[in-house]
Amino acid sequence: MGFLDLFVVASIPILKVLLVTALGLYLALDTVDILGESARKHVNRMAFFVFNPALVGSNLARTVTSESILKLWLMPVNILITFLIGSALGWMLIKVSKVPSHLKGLVLGCCAAGNLGNLPIIILPAVCKEKSSPFGDPESCRANAMAYSSLSMAIGAVYLWSYVFNIVRISSMKAAAESKVADPTMDKQTLQQEFSEPLLTSTNYDSMDDINGYEHVLVIPSSKSLADRTVSIWTKVTQNLESFAEKINLKSLLAPSTMGAIVGFIIGGVPLIRRLVIGQSAPFRVIEDSALLLGDASIPIVTLIMGGNLLRGLRSSGIQRSLVIGIMAVRYVLLPIIGIAVLKGLAYLGLLHDDPLYVFILLLQYALPPAMNIGTMTQLFGAGESECSVVMLWTYAFASLSLTLWSTFFMWLVS
Could you tell me the superkingdom of the organism this chain comes from (predicted)? Predict the structure, then answer.
């Protein structure tokens, strides 16, 4: 198959994404106000809690079996490699560009995390539908493409909310602390608000009245039994685990898409459950049909929301142009080149799956634009929200050209 034919095959899915994204941007305009900010918020919650989990779970349940699970072990490793390499390149970009403190988390997040869910789910099945596709039968290709893309979405969500979330959180906290230290105008009232918790908290005493009227409190150590000490140690361990869970936002690791992936693996990987739910002759096939019906709504809705969110980038400013160019250079030039080298090395070691479609999505994971959920994180912590909108606007605008070229080259490599 010629390079020009591959270019046409690769460009069709990207054009579909552009058209639906442009429609979402149009619907979000103030003059139209069909997909305004409040509407996007509610629809996005529906997609996050209902449509995406149904899409991930139903596609994994249909295509994943107990035998094929062992073949997919490389994808979590490959996604982790993209995050680590992207973080290293982002750190170098921060050093070169002298990024302000409140934007360091944004830059690291944009360089590390790609859109591992929505775009592969749109691009891969669309590529399979093309007559000149190098991936064989359209039906089996589409089924495998949805399974690979769903797994990519689930794993990407875990890494995004465990790794990038905490990078943005720590960066915003450091920036806030630096701004407070640099501000010499903190008066006595501000200090009292900052340090409103007493040194001897009420949780340590049955009543604070017990110590009123005393300038000094003499604490006499008492002898404890081994059982009391064991209980005390266990209490401290429990408190430390709770503190650790809060710091890493453990609830976000079990995002609905991740839970959908777990359910999909259980249904597809356990033969008894699979026979009950999956297939035309399955007694509970209505469950599969309902999940597929909900999952089919995910792709157009998420793409429309993505277009509406990009509208904020047209109205924002304040980020240096060189920084946006640097992020695009990392995601669209350096990462794909390094990704090709990584997968070539894995193939040389005999660790790479021989399925061309599987290799294609592993390569594609290095060339995707930044994850849209980074905007949600910056909004949550109030650090770099407007700058993130600008970054998303320009990275997704150039993604149409970049993804088309890299997809063409990747298909040429695996075909």
Answer: Eukaryota
Enumerate residues 6+ apart whose C-beta is below 8 A from 302. Answer: 47, 51, 52, 118
**Residue 252 CB neighbour total at 10 angstroms:** 17
Stretch among 6-20, 174-188, 247-261 having the lowest mean pLDDT: 174-188
* Length of the chain (residues): 415
Q: How many Å apart are CA 219 and CA 225, to the nearest integer?
A: 18
Q: Which residue range is the domain that position 308 belongs to?
A: 3-176+248-414
> What are the residues whose beta carbons fall under 8 Å from the beta carbon of 174, sequence distance 6 or more?
101
Q: What is the mean pLDDT of residues 76-89?
A: 93
Residue 218 lies in a domain: no
Q: How many domains does the chain have?
A: 1
Per-residue CA distances from 16 to 12, 34, 119, 125, 294 (Å): 6, 21, 11, 12, 21
CATH, residue 356: 1.20.1530.20
Which span out of 3-17, 315-329, 399-413 was modeled with the highest average pLDDT?
399-413
Q: Is this structure's pTM higher than 0.85?
A: no
Residue 186 lies in a domain: no
Residue pair 301/47 in contact (Cβ under 8 Å)? The answer is yes
Lowest mean pLDDT: which of 78-92, 258-272, 323-337?
258-272
Average predicted confidence (pLDDT) for the chain: 78
Cβ atoms within 10 Å, residue 91: 15
Distance CA 98, CA 104 (A): 9
Residue 190 has pLDDT above 60, yes or no: no
Give exposure, 23-58, as e/b (b: 16+ Cβ within 10 Å): bbbbbbeeeeeebeeeebeebbeebbebbbbbbbbb
Confidence of residue 189 (pLDDT cuts 50, 70, 90): low
